[in-house]
Design a protein that fits this description.
Distance between the termini of chain A: 24 Å
Helix content of chain B: 25-40%
Number of strands of chain B: 17
Number of domains of chain B: 2
Structural class of chain A: mainly alpha
Low-confidence stretches of chain A: none
CATH topology of chain A: ABC transporter involved in vitamin B12 uptake, BtuC
Order of helices and strands of chain B: EEEHEEHEHHHEHEHEEHHEEEHEHEHEHE
Largest interface: A-B, 28 and 39 residues
Oligomer: heterodimer
CATH superfamily of the largest domain in chain B: P-loop containing nucleotide triphosphate hydrolases
Structural class of chain B: alpha/beta
Shape of chain A: globular
Mean pLDDT of chain A: 86
Radius of gyration of chain B: 26 Å
Number of strands of chain A: 0
Helix content of chain A: over 70%
Number of domains of chain A: 1
Largest sheet of chain A: none
Shape of chain B: elongated
Chain lengths: 341, 368
């Protein structure tokens, strides 16, 4: 059994990594101006650094692919952390309204800063986004203390999301016209418009956050048996829960700051990974979610970019098409399991 | 304080916030001992266990394990000394039973929680001991409540503590598994020199498998003693405020409530032969009389618990003329008579005479 599992996990990791690489390369190659693999390779190696191909690859496609990869991973890990926290398999930053909370604060911060005539740098964006995420989480935690049922918690989250979106709309309506164009694109969710400097900030936050989450996998596995057992296993529950919330908030805030709210990835990918790996062990599922989320978002971005080219879809449109059915499947599957007992 | 005292509670008040649920807890459990907490529903047995397990802060008092005060110990140190098996329902996704038992090794693993060969051996041993090894690769959600309870017990054993706290560890098990697991526990506490504190609703099993019994009732630790101390003088009936039936402390058996009123049937019993008949009549709601039963007869406790009227005789004495006369009077008043005795001897010749008397009146039936 142990050996069979190890083989399965290795094969799955290799498969996911290969898939991620494949989609990343396709991201670099595909687009309105078709480039060959060789042109892309040359551009990446820096051999011909003043051709159009070089500029397209290094200034547009490479940052976009890198952002999709890192942010996709971040979203999935953030979703998985929330699912562990709430012991609820359909929790995620988007369904719980945390992305919308971040969207609200980022939108307000953007409008205010533009009115005062300066453009926010990426660190400020992340900070604003993090503040919104944590505020929305606070609201959800208030609800979580009162509701026992997992569906009720999700409804509370969805409603929080709607309220935040409504307030965001209100601000956008009364903002100057020039601001709206900027905001509109971002608030729909997109990996476009991210440059290499942003990618560096993203990489630092996301990789550090994911590594920290991975280091939490031991107490997370204890917490899967419930709070009482976790306490008996020596977990400092207060610190552990705080760490989960802050890490999850930081990861999803980073996504919302740069790509806007991206739907359902946080719920769908961890669930798919649990099925693929046949386990729920955090030590396996955290890295699996990261790689799986990267592949998922690269694939979705590819579809968003190319299917109706030159018109580009918002990333959430595509992730919802693939992600939402998974959420429904999770709910139906759980009902079946409950009955089966 | 004895040297081999493993767990000690002094002046403990347990409860939630400032609300005291159980007051005045003081006990010691030594290595190799099982202490069982009994008491009616809602008396606070689980609250006591949670407080000892450091899951609830103590309102007052002190709990120590091997001399070390629990409140000043680090969580990780407590977890190596104390394991729990709770009644909380576990909703573990995609975990095999061996994954569940492996979580017992948590206090011993490193930063990432990877199991060593030693940890795996401890997990396997605990599963074999509890007879759950065959479930190792089965999904924890796909087994029965009883199997789940046993796996959780294996988990508590795999943690290799000095004290195990078990909240109703046998409530979902069938009678054979109840006996089997309590036997396993008793052997385990002796072989590993550890202590068990458990709560049980099966007081008959508490009587058989405990070294000490703590009775919790009306917000306090009512009585602490050996099973022999506790199961005497009808104390148990009082502890549980039994209103619809009786409990026999000697045998650890419960009987339903007697049917009172004018007896319709007279049962001539003895030697245990009358017991099924008494219980059948009670189930049917028929008031009955029984006699003549010696006070040391197997029938006596059940007849005393269920009959509307009972004619008895002193132990080891032949039936007196007076008892015989009263029995005949009762037979005159009853509609029918059933004799469950198959053979008569020196001591119950009077019952043979009673059967003959009933037959002569045309009241004797083979069955009802």
């Amino acid at each position: 059994m142990e050996r069979k599992r190890a083989v399965r996990w290795t094969v799955c990791f290799l498969l996911l990594t290969a898939l991620t690489l494949f989609f990343a390369v396709t991201e670099l190659v595909c687009g309105s101006s078709g480039l060959s693999v060789r042109e892309v390779a040359e551009a990446l190696s820096g051999e011909s650094n003043d051709t159009a191909a070089y500029r397209i690859v290094s200034e547009i496609r490479l940052p976009r692919a890198a952002a999709a990869l890192l942010l996709g991973g971040a979203l999935s890990v953030s979703g998985y952390l929330l699912q562990s926290f709430f012991a609820n398999p359909i929790a995620g930053p988007y369904v719980l309204g945390i992305s919308s909370g971040a969207k609200l604060t980022v939108a307000v911060a953007m409008i205010v800063s533009l009115q005062h005539g300066f453009v926010m740098n990426s660190a400020l964006m992340v900070a604003a986004s993090f503040a919104g995420s944590v505020a929305a989480m606070g609201v959800i935690l208030l609800f979580a203390g009162r509701v026992r049922n997992m569906a009720q918690l999700i409804i509370a989250g969805v409603m929080t999301g709607y309220i935040c979106s409504a307030v965001t709309e209100l601000f956008v309506t009364f903002a100057d016209d020039s601001n709206i164009v900027n905001l509109h694109n971002w608030s729909m969710g997109s990996f476009s418009g991210i440059d290499m400097a942003d990618v560096r900030v993203i990489a630092v936050i996301v990789l550090a956050g994911t590594a920290a989450a991975f280091m939490l996998s031991k107490p997370m596995s204890a917490y899967q048996l419930g709070e009482s057992y976790a306490v008996n296993m020596g977990v400092n529950i207060r610190m552990f829960r705080l760490a989960l919330i802050l890490l999850s908030g930081m990861l999803s805030a980073c996504v919302t700051a740069f790509a806007g709210p991206v739907s359902f990835v946080g719920v769908a990918v961890p669930h798919l990974m649990k099925g693929l790996f046949g386990t729920a062990k955090p030590i396996v599922i955290i890295p699996a979610s990261f790689v799986g989320g990267a592949a998922f978002c690269l694939a979705c971005d590819l579809i968003a970019r190319t299917v109706f080219s030159p018109v580009e879809l918002s990333i959430s449109t595509v992730t919802a098409v693939f992600g939402a059915p998974v959420v429904i499947a999770v709910m139906l599957g759980r009902n079946k399991e409950r009955r089966g007992i | 304080m004895a040297e081999d005292t493993v767990l000690r509670a002094e002046g403990v008040s347990a409860g939630y916030g400032k609300k005291v649920v159980v007051d005045g807890l003081a006990f010691e459990v030594r290595a190799g001992e099982i202490l069982t907490i009994i008491g009616p529903n809602g008396a606070g047995k689980s609250t006591v266990l949670k407080s000892i397990a450091a899951q609830l802060p103590l309102i007052s008092g002190r709990v120590s394990i091997c001399g070390g005060d629990l409140s000043s110990m680090k969580e990780s140190d407590i977890s190596r000394r104390l394991s729990v098996c709770l009644t909380d329902r576990i909703d573990a996704e995609k975990m095999t039973c061996s994954d569940i038992v492996s979580t017992g090794r948590y206090p011993y693993t490193g930063r990432l929680g990877l199991l060593t060969d030693g940890d795996r051996a401890a997990v396997r041993e605990a599963m074999e001991l509890t007879g759950t090894a065959y479930l190792a690769d089965t999904d924890f959600r796909c087994i029965s409540d009883g199997q789940r309870q046993t796996v959780m017990l294996a988990r508590a054993i795999a943690q290799q503590p000095q004290v195990m706290l078990l909240d109703e560890p046998t409530s979902f098990l069938d009678i054979n598994n109840k006996l089997r697991l309590l036997t396993v526990l008793r052997e385990l506490v002796r072989s590993r020199n550890i202590a068990v504190v458990q709560s049980l609703h099966e007081i008959d099993l508490a009587q058989r498998f405990s070294d000490k019994i703590l009775c919790v009732h009306s917000g306090k630790a009512d009585r602490l003693g050996t099973p022999e101390d506790i199961f005497s003088d009808g104390y148990i009936s009082g502890l549980y405020s039994m209103t619809s039936g009786t409990f026999n402390g000697l045998f650890g058996t419960a009987e339903a409530e007697r049917v009172t009123g004018r007896p319709e049937v007279f049962v001539i019993g003895g030697g245990g032969s009358g017991i099924p008949m008494y219980r059948m009549l009670q189930r049917r709601g028929t008031a009955f009389a029984a006699g003549v039963i010696h006070e040391n007869d197997l029938d006596f406790p059940v007849a005393a618990a269920l009959s509307a009227e009972l004619i008895t005789e002193k132990s080891f004495e032949s039936v007196s003329a007076e008892s015989l006369r009263r029995a005949k009077e009762l037979i005159d008043r009853c509609g029918s008579v059933i004799c469950t005795v198959k053979s008569f001897g020196q001591m119950n010749l009077a019952n043979k005479e009673l059967a003959g008397y009933a037959d002569s009146l045309g009241k004797l039936r083979g069955s009802i």
